From TrEMBL:
Protein name: NAD kinase
Gene name for this UniProt entry: nadK
Keyword Nucleus: no
Residues binding NAD(+): D72, G73, N142, E143, D172, T183, A184, Y185, N186, L187, S188, Q242
Localisation: Cytoplasm
Main location: cytoplasm
The UniProt record lists the keyword DNA-binding: no
Naturally occurring in which organism (per UniProt): Fodinibius salinus
An example Gene Ontology molecular-function term: NAD+ kinase activity
Active site per the UniProt annotation: D72 (proton acceptor)
Entry's family note: Belongs to the NAD kinase family.
HAMAP family according to UniProt: NAD_kinase
Length: 290
């Protein structure tokens, strides 16, 4: 069995779990493909399992399973690389929160054993798709964001759903999140948590001027139109943290569910609610640490 590892070598937190993965793979006769840049993480060591290649695309093409080692940022980057490739992805969290990187680095060896035994489920996550007036298409696994840049002023963003006007939002920004992205920026902006397999998207204003302006959960099978007019200050549009410069106004995109999906691996010891309880510390009494 062959695995491809996607990781950021500049993040020190990936070094120890990457070396542990190579050592485990040496003992179990599997190959680990990775961008040659990661060789610096085990400099001076010899690993039979290590197969450096020219770039991450080659590693992915030759692998059976993809391992994203890092945090949710690495998972989003891996999803962008694999937009047209249906191969399962295991997220190993070597960072902090990590809602998509289910597996903690402490459980790495157990996770690898499950993989070689083919003992896992596929958690299929869909992307959102935004198309602008010029026909450019942007994809997001987490969210699209319309936000102010370097300004204390609010932005004004108009939203329309299925040809019905929703609102003219005066706020610090507007989030359009997928179910996967409901536990990201949406959550920190008081948006709802949505089950990953729900066919919806969440429209969440950031610090709205009117307190009664609340998040909306909309079917993702119909188009949400978001429009930004010329304003006194610059407005940013981003998709999973990738910024698109708005060159002319009005700027308008139509957002709906994409046909692209990514296949996340869920191990027998994992489920979505366990992840929520652990990451958000539900039911934990901070007074006694239980």
């Amino acid at each position: 069995m062959t695995f491809a590892v996607i990781a950021n070598p500049e993040k020190y937190s990936v070094k120890d779990p990457f070396i542990q993965l190579l050592q485990w793979s040496d003992d179990h006769g599997v190959q680990i493909l990775f961008n040659a840049d990661l060789q610096e993480l085990y400099s001076g060591q010899q690993h039979a399992a290590a197969q450096p290649v020219a770039n991450e695309k080659k590693a992915i093409d030759q692998a059976d399973i993809i391992i994203a080692l890092g945090g949710d940022g690495t998972m989003l980057y891996t999803a962008r690389l694999m937009k047209n490739i249906q191969k399962p992805i295991l997220g190993i969290n070597s960072g902090r929160l990590g809602f998509m990187a289910y597996t903690q680095k402490e459980n790495l060896e157990q996770a690898m054993q499950f993989l070689i035994e083919d003992n896992y489920r596929i958690d299929k996550r869909y992307l959102l798709e935004a198309e602008d007036d010029d026909g450019h298409i942007y994809h997001a696994l987490n969210e699209f964001l319309f936000a102010k840049k370097d300004s204390t002023s609010m932005v004004n963003v108009q939203a329309e759903y299925d040809d019905m006007f929703i609102n003219n939002y005066w706020s610090d920004g507007l989030i359009v999140a997928s179910p996967t992205g409901s536990t990201a920026y949406n959550l920190s902006s008081d948006g709802p948590i949505v089950m990953p397999d729900s066919n919806v998207m969440v429209l969440t204003p950031i610090n709205p001027h009117t307190l009664t302006t609340r998040p909306l959960v909309l079917s993702s099978n119909k188009a949400l139109k978001v429009r930004v007019e010329q304003q006194d200050h610059e407005v940013l549009f981003s998709y999973d943290g990738q910024i698109k410069q708005i060159d002319s106004y009005p700027f308008e995109v139509k957002i709906k569910r994409s046909n692209f999906t990514v296949d996340l691996i869920e191990l027998p010891t994992q489920n979505y609610f366990d992840t929520l309880r652990r990451k958000l510390m539900w039911g934990m009494d901070s007074r006694n640490g239980s």
